[in-house]
Amino acid sequence: MPADGYLERLKREGRIVVVGASLAGLRAAETLRDEGFAGTLTMVGDEPYEPYDRPPLSKGVLLNRTTPDHTALPRRRALDADWRLGVAATGLDMAAKRVRLADGEELEYDRLLIATGVRARPWPHEREAELDGVFVLRTRDDATALQKRLTDGPRRVFVVGAGFTGSEIASACREREIAVTVAERGAAPLVGALGGVVGEVAAQLQRESGVDLRTGVMVTGLEGDSAGRVRTAHLSDGSSVEADVVVVSLGATRNTEWLTGSGLGAGPRGIACDAGCRAFDIRGIVTDDIFVAGDVARSPHPLFGYQFLSLEHWGNAVSQAETAAHNMLCKSVDRRPHMWVPAFWSSQFGVNIKSVGVPSMGTEILISQGSLAERRFVGVYGYQERVIGAVTFDQARWLPFYEHLIETTASFPPPFATVDRRPEGARPVPADFPDPSVPTHGPTVTLSGYSPADRRMTFTPGRH
Question: Which GO terms label this protein's molecular function in UniProt (predicted)?
């Protein structure tokens, strides 16, 4: 623990580096200033843009309702920061407390926050990925390029992967009356995140909206013409689809490669940290000067068996960044844990989908309100006889109630009547998640660590 007076000197004249000029990085920087940090604040980002909002990229931007350069995140306050944009971090020297940048510069720090997030997983065959007309969608530049190509009026768009992003892209195409085919390795869209029961509803929505949905198939190859433009996607069932735009939506890869050899506990699943956002080194010892927040972080959560959760959720990035920034500036007794209840939303095919908790941990689902056939319902997920998650289709107003059930580790199935309970909600059914060993597209929560224990506790959400 630093000597007496260290924290006061840190707040007055210290050096804090934030790697990741993202939503999490921005909110952390604002919190640092809010909590009295008056020292040198440096923001490092590999993109040339100041922090912007990603959810509109697969929704409003593709629908031409906004443009990528109008997605900048609003500022909550002035930062007085040194912005190093368009230059990636390439290495970390933990002993010397230095971050190496791609331009050769090194930044010294007293406290470091890592919020490098994730990037789109590319098409695995490099030559096919380089064909003109093959896209991914994660960054502002990705959205700009795809928006332009959709505006050019392609004959058909082919989407690889029916997770949330892939499904939102397909929805935007249909809304623009562009023919679209979606290929999904699992049995249904969204199956990795919400299970087969809800996935079947998503499949019906897509087909009724005119999507050519192919499930249970893999894409075996992309073929181009003599000019290097993509023309055909070949599938594992022997069929092929002619398309002049292919969007690869195979999930995300965490940006941790730059930490290789640093001694930090970083890998493909993210950077492990404690509930206070302090990073672990490779020995499992928590560091006291390196913190993590956002999509790249893996932290234990008491509500979910102390499993390490990696959450690609907008609200988690904000909450975890605020907690990390607070803890960077205070004594250990004043630190607080990051215990945000996971929440996610999506808008596709005219339906508003929201979830809370970790549905993918559920073994059973109960349709507690509404009807699957009407595409307006609440599904509650159970695990080891407790409520672990919930999803709503156009029923978001009920979600806070189910969030409370999760926070209080309520029993499953809920032992009380609910509004608009239909006969199909009489008893739980298997949630029908795919075998975890079989890759699917689109989970928004990654579980890792030891198996969850049947632990009972009282959870009081932080109000700060």
Answer: oxidoreductase activity, acting on NAD(P)H
Q: What are 94's two structure tokens?
A: 């933990």
Helix axes 314-328, 23-34, angle to 10 degrees: 40
Give the pair of three-digit tokens for residue 161.
């992967």
* Element housing 292 (H / E): strand 286-292
**Cα–Cα distance, 356 to 181 (Å, whole number):** 29
Question: Into which CATH architecture does domain 121-252 fall?
Answer: 3-Layer(bba) Sandwich (3.50)
* Cβ-based neighbour number of residue 449 at 10 Å: 15
Write out pLDDT tens, residues 41-60. Answer: 999 999 999 999 999 999 89
- For the segment 241-251, the average pLDDT, to the nearest whole number, is 97
The domain made up of 350-430 has a fold known as Enolase-like; domain 1 (3.30.390)
Q: What's the full length of the chain, in residues?
A: 464
**Is the CB of residue 165 less than 8 Å from the CB of residue 173?**
no
Residues 426, 432, 437: CA angle, nearest 5 degrees: 160
Residue with tokens 């009380």: 416
User: Which residues are bridge partners to 352 per DSSP?
Assistant: 347
pTM of the model: 0.90
